[in-house]
Amino acid sequence: MSIAVGLDELGTTLDGFPWGYLVTVRDDGRAQTLAVPTRFVDGVLVASVGKGTAANLSARPQVTMAFPGATGEALSLIVDGDATVAGEQVTITPTWAVLHRPAVGRD
To answer: By percentage, how much of the chain surpasses pLDDT 70?
Structure first.
């Protein structure tokens, strides 16, 4: 089950998710995942990243962030967006968001 999250509701929804996994793509096409604390400021996600992640984002700015639910039963939040990099700070402008039910224990 998925529940669409309107971008105008994203700030409120993010209140329950203080950190998430930022998924970028390396030069060799493999995914790189980094756990980062995030802030939601003026409609964008803001986080600090290292040089490798910043390079990935500069080359391929379309990203996904996955914010896990607090328990194996709780919904997770998935956000797609477009990233811009300034030094080691990334700003992600959300383009889509969804709350998603875990598949654990479901056949």
So the answer is: 96
